[in-house]
Amino acid sequence: MKIIQSLTGGLALLFCLVQSAAAITVGFSQVGSESGWRTSFSESVKAEAKRRSIELKFSDAQQKQENQIKAVRSFIAQGVDAIMIAPVVETGWKPVLREAKRARIPVVILDRNVDVKNASLFLTRIASDFVEEGRRAANWLMEETGGNCSILELQGTVGATAAIDRMKGFNEVIAKYPNAKIVRSQTGEFTRTKGKEVMEAMLKAENSGKDICALWAHNDEMALGGIQAIKEAGLKPGADMLVVSVDGVPDYFKAMADGDANATVELNPHLGAPAFDVIERYLNGDRKIDKLITTTGDLFTQETAAEEYKKRAAK
Ligand code: GZL
User: Which residues form the signal peptide (predicted)?
Assistant: First the structure.
């Protein structure tokens, strides 16, 4: 009898060891690949999953929320250990988050936010403070121009937290300067192509931009498209018209080093490590997880752009 008992004990121990060593499976629903920042974000999550031997199921939604919701439902059906969502817009998430909760699968929100009142529908959100990014961009511009500036704004995706909050932070600062005003504002959907197209239209409507002091873009991709449009309108971006943005992608550092752009607030794309940390903590029983984990970034200008570009382009 003793032999059977020690055998089953040994098998149970073996099973636990194998189980705990088994890789976890995480489903990740990503917005798309609309910007250099987004692709760095995706690559960093994939590299981190590989480093930790986590099985990552990656889904690119091509900017469509219905594709994100389909992907999350598929992750639930596959019984993944955890789900990460980088939501394209804030609204429309309650039903599928309820389904994940019913399936007892923890959900981590990355970057932009979801507009749900019931905070138990997700484990935590890991993101930058977009309002602060808008404030920093505006404070730089007000300092640079003495608060005397007519501005064209390229907004991000309508309904996306990054667009809503960057606009909020920027407007909060310029409201203190009577001679600072956004004269035109339109969405460039966070892409370079659309940013150029919208900037061309705004310049045409504003006497080719001759009286415009600055372009404020919610991300570098749109700013880079805007810079093309400013050049084609016969103006010198970075000089005739200042350019300030957010993200800190290598191409934008190159534009600043070339004198075509002036400042950007860097956005950390490395959200994989903190996300997997919090998932592993939760799966190991930790229930003391903050509802918001913020990342930070610095404001960069032309002064250090060339050396910063070398560092980033080399990666
Ligand atoms: C903001 C993020 C934005 C980036 C853009 O955190 O959602 O989406 O600023 C990207 O580059 O499109």
Answer: 1-21
Could you give phi then psi for residue 182, rounded to 5 degrees? Answer: -85, 110
Ligand 1 pocket check for 190: Cβ under 6 Å: yes
User: Which CATH architecture fits 130-267+300-313?
Assistant: 3-Layer(aba) Sandwich (3.40)
List the domain boundaries for the chain: 23-128+269-284, 130-267+300-313
Ligand 1 atom index nearest CA of 219: 9
Q: Where are the alpha helices (DSSP H) in 22-107?
A: 36-51, 65-78, 94-102
The H or E element spanning position 9 is helix 2-21
Q: What is the pLDDT along the chain (315 residues), one digit of tens a residue?
A: 566 666 666 666 665 555 555 699 999 999 999 999 999 999 999 999 999 999 999 999 999 999 999 999 999 999 999 999 999 999 999 999 999 999 999 999 999 999 999 999 999 999 999 999 999 999 999 999 999 999 999 999 999 999 999 999 999 999 999 999 999 999 999 999 999 999 999 999 999 999 999 999 999 999 999 999 999 999 999 999 999 999 999 999 999 999 999 999 999 999 999 999 999 999 999 999 999 999 989 999 999 999 999 998 877
Domain 23-128+269-284 of CATH type 3.40.50.2300: yes
- Is the fold of 23-128+269-284 the same as that of 130-267+300-313? yes
Ligand 1 atom closest to the CA of 86, numbered from 1? 7
